[in-house]
Structures are given as structure tokens and as C-alpha cells.
Amino acid sequence: MPGAKRKRKPSTWERFVKKNGFLYAAAGTAVVTAAASPLIGGVPNVVQRLFRDDRPTITLTDDSATLTDLSLAYPAAVAQPTEAPAGGTKAGVTRTKMVIYNSTGATIRVLDIQAKVRKRSGPLHGTLLAQTSQGGTSEVIGLALWQQPAIARVLTGPTALGDPYFSVQSIELPAGASQVVEITAIPDRHYYEYALAVTYDRDGKQKTAEATDASLKVTGYAPAYDAASEGTPGSYAAIDAARVREIATSPAGD
């Protein structure tokens, strides 16, 4: 066409840059990041917090061995057990050791701990293996799983609860500090699976961090079982319905 300009072909160098330019961009980003990393430790705390997680680190472990009630329940009948079969679920009460580590880089205050129920169903009623011990810890926090919300309360007995634990106090954790909290969870006549939620204040803002573990489950006592025994591993003995009724009480009064 008259007057039209012919399109110039890109040079070999231009084609190379167009095809591989992203490699230079990535390399440049890596260099900037590497150069900036040593500087982070020297900037003010308010800037350092931008590089941290603003949630504390929460770890959970089953601590039910310290309870006075070590009873287990199973969904099916177990005839004359001598040892506790695998797969049992704590009955009547369970206990968890929570460690809260303040990894946020700023002081936090724990304002509440709640149970968040994930599953609720009828109690396990196949087999009851009832067992008691002397117990051994002095924790003071309990959760009534049938209450909504299931807030931390003062534990006044093995399954008795009083006033809200955090109504007149909080737990202050400076940056890098840890706190161990023993938590007893108590069911009514239902089976529960749940998570634990920690509400805390950081820099004047309330936030919540949740944690879960396979051990966060417990069954309430059933009114009757297909099979029931009492004792200790190696010396369980069958018990009758009257003895089951003595053991299988509910703190909720149901």
C-alpha cells in the first residue's frame, strides 16, 4: 500500500529480552529481598510486627491420665475385657493441657477460653470400662460442653463448675512468654467433639485463635450399657445395672 511503513523486525537481542525478561525480574526481586532481610532486626518494633504472625501459637496434649475418673466408653459391646481395648473414648470428663506461646512480638492478654462444639450426638453405650484413680493436678478451669457459649469457668470439684474464670482476671503474656493451662471438659448425656478457642487482646484489638486435636472428644455417661465392667487394666470385673446407675451420673442433671 502506498505510504505504509514496513514493520521493523525485532533484533536478536530484543527477542531474547522479551522471552527471558521475567528471569531478570525474579532475580532482581531475590536480590532486594536478600538485601532487606538483615535490616529487619534493626527497624522499630512496630515495623517488625508486620513480619510476624499476630496469633499466638497454641499446642494441645491429652492430659486425662491426671483425672480421678479414667473411665472409657466404646460404641460396641466388649465381652469380659482384661485390658482396655484400643479406640476407647473418655467418659464423663476429659482433660487437656494447653500451652499458649506468645509468638506475636507484642504483649497479649488472654481474655477467655471457650469450647467450640463441632459434633454432638447420643452417648456411646456399647461398653463402659469404669476406672478411678487419685488424680494429681490442681488446675482450675472447666468447660460445660452443653452450655452455649461454653466459656471457661472455675472448677470447684471433679465435675462442678462455678463463676466464669475470666470475669475478674486475665492472663498477660509478654512477647516470647508461655503459659500452661489445664482445661477440664465436662459433657452432659451426649458425645462431643470440639475445638478450643482463645480470645486475646493485642494492641487494643480483640482477636481469637482456635486449636484442635484428635483428643478433643468426650462422651457423657449413658443410662445403660450393653456391657459394663469396673476395675483397673488386668482386673476388670463385670458390674450390674445398679452399679452403672451409681457411676453414670450427669453434671447437667439430665
Automatic annotation (TrEMBL):
Transmembrane segments: 21-40
Keywords assigned by UniProt, alphabetized: Membrane, Transmembrane, Transmembrane helix
Top-level taxon of origin: Bacteria
Name listed for the protein in its UniProt record: Tat pathway signal sequence domain protein
Species name: Paractinoplanes durhamensis
